[in-house]
Structure to design on (628 residues):
């Protein structure tokens, strides 16, 4: 039996603040709770490594209620909170506490235990120590290394997002430098709602342990399930919300987020009492496991496939490697794998963990690579200064990078400068191995059926003995008329090329059905406006996003003008961010045209692009509907 000295205690709420279930730290992870918990718990253990590999086990326990301290107090608070939610008609809280009451009425409580080895444990319990930060601090991260994974200190809340009791226990053993021996600490924490207990207002957060919110330091005072045998930390998610496929959900998240660390022998995972082992040898097969893939839906399946491609790039001997230096980042490595059907995406890694696939906040989303071969690329930082710099730019989930979270303007400006340079050099490294130049002449056997070879008699006439080999005969072919509505500018901003829509408004472009601006799916459902004397230049003195277009309409109308980046196999839509001479709508331009009146539009694209451009003009949907 657990000693009666272990209690659950909630702090007083003298200001009578109303604190609901919408705790900001927990809500951050509510949309993808299992993936987030696996990622955050894994990262916390990796940061506290003492030797490699860090080993982390995820196990499901079924604990008798009698083995859980102060469970009666938790039941009382849940009942009080349920009654209050019912009276105040707070339906979300009422539903939560209804389920919590059912769990507490059961004979056993499901608990997810996450325990690590080869880590330092969480020293404490004084203010400023890792254990204090883990249990008592809000928005505070205490890590020994400046380039450690955590930066906001809210990742610990991910465990609460998978608890139907919003309660988590912690136990740790660490080496005490003062005592020169191992020390033990244990404490629990509940995040519920503010409530009134026996006429006294209480806050939403309660602590399990000794009086005055103190942790337990004597292992003899805690139940056996809270004890540890070696240095490290254990996290216990009480009332674990267990889906039938929880093991595969965790496996999926772990291999997606930590495949670099797993492959490099820095991390190993065990799930379900050893039912699933994740290490360097099993990593590849797990990416192909149908059981793991079965937990994915359409969107996450696509992301999982990309992760597998990134993993293949990371381990492939044939991947091309570029290493360059960027001020304040040190050495940066880019590995590029070129293969057909790869998704043309990048992956940025820090400390063995996948961070993001873009630098959108720094004007480089890495979303378009026209005239590039299919590829994937993996970016890693080889120096501590690079990892430390990137860490400061991460959002709380460690999935996006932005300078907006930095506290002063000088730091924000510097970060933008550094990251824009990084983006340019990453793209340059990719371009070196994947960019396709147009050739002057290629053998296209597959096009033979579209071009007649001529008759044998024609061939004989062309090669008859009457031809004088010393006499050169030539015939000037009449110049073909250009179709006016496609414009292809080279990197120097020189104008124009043919193709696109013909003068009757037909679509000569490659591929199948194209989506036109304004939500029109088929070119035949709208009327195209022919344009002549079309020019397209890179705006002098502008950036890679600046363009100036000139044209003369042959008809007066209000039109939607859209721009496409011209690729080898297919075109990709260019989004217009701003313009002088037209109104930006959904990335296209709304323009009023007057027949035979020259038009000039200066515009800014949403992303950098220096390649050829195709332009089309169609009657705006509003005008077209009025005509009908």
């Amino acid at each position: 039996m657990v000693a009666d000295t272990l209690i659950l205690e909630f702090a007083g709420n003298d200001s009578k603040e109303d604190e609901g279930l919408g705790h900001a730290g927990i809500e951050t992870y509510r949309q993808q709770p299992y993936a987030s918990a696996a990622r955050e718990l894994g990262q916390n253990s990796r940061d506290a490594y003492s030797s490699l590999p860090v080993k982390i086990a995820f196990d499901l326990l079924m604990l008798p209620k009698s083995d859980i301290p102060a469970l009666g107090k938790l039941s009382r608070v849940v009942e009080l909170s349920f009654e209050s939610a019912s009276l105040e008609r707070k339906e979300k809280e009422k539903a939560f506490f209804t389920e919590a009451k059912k769990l507490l009425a059961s004979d056993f409580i499901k608990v997810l235990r996450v325990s690590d080895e080869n880590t330092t444990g969480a020293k404490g319990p004084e203010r400023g120590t890792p254990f204090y930060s883990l249990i008592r601090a809000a928005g505070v991260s205490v890590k020994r290394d400046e380039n450690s994974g955590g930066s906001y200190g809210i990742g610990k809340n991910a465990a609460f997002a998978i608890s139907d009791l919003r309660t988590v226990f912690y136990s740790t053993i660490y080496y005490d430098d003062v005592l020169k021996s191992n020390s033990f600490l244990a404490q629990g924490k509940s995040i519920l709602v503010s409530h009134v207990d026996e006429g006294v207002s209480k806050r939403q957060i309660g602590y399990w342990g000794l009086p005055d919110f103190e942790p337990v330091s004597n292992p003899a005072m805690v139940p056996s399930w809270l004890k540890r045998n070696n240095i490290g930390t254990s996290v216990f998610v009480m009332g674990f919300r267990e889906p039938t496929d929880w093991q595969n959900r965790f496996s999926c998240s772990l291999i997606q987020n930590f495949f670099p660390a797993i492959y490099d022998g820095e991390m190993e995972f065990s799930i379900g009492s050893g039912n699933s082992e994740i290490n360097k040898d099993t990593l590849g097969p797990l990416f192909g496991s149908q059981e793991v893939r079965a937990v994915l839906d359409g969107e996450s399946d696509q992301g999982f496939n990309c992760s597998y491609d990134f993993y293949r790039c990371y381990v492939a001997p044939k991947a091309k490697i570029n290493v360059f230096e960027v001020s304040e980042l040190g050495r940066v490595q880019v590995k590029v794998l070129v293969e057909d059907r790869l998704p043309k995406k990048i992956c940025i890694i820090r400390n063995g963990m996948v961070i993001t696939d873009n630098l959108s906040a720094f004007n480089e989303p890495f979303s378009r690579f026209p005239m590039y071969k299919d590829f994937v690329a993996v970016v890693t930082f080889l120096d501590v200064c690079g990892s430390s710099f990137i860490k400061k730019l991460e959002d709380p989930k460690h999935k996006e990078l932005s300078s907006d979270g930095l506290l002063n303007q000088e730091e924000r400006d510097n970060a933008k400068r550094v990251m824009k340079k990084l983006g340019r050099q990453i793209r340059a490294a990719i371009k070196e191995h994947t960019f396709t130049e147009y050739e002057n002449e290629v053998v296209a056997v597959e096009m033979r059926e579209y071009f007649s070879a001529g008759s044998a008699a024609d061939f004989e006439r062309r090669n008859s003995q009457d031809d004088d080999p010393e006499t050169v005969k030539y015939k000037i072919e009449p110049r073909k008329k250009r179709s006016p509505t496609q414009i292809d500018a080279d990197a120097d901003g020189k104008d124009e090329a043919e193709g696109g829509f013909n003068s009757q408004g037909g679509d000569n472009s490659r591929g199948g059905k194209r989506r036109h601006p304004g939500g029109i799916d088929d070119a035949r459902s709208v009327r195209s406006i022919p344009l002549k004397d079309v020019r397209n230049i890179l705006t002098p003195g502008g950036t890679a996003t600046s363009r100036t277009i000139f044209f003369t309409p042959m008809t007066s109308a209000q039109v939607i003008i859209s721009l496409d980046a011209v690729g080898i196999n297919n075109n990709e839509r260019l989004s217009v961010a701003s313009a002088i001479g037209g109104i930006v709508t959904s990335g296209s331009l709304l323009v009023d045209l007057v027949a035979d009146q020259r038009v000039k539009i200066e515009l800014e694209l949403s992303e950098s692009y220096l390649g050829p451009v195709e332009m089309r003009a169609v009657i705006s949907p509003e005008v077209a509907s009025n005509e009908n």
Q: What stands out?
A: Residues 245-295 form one domain. The chain has four domains: 7-242, 245-295, 301-434, 523-627.
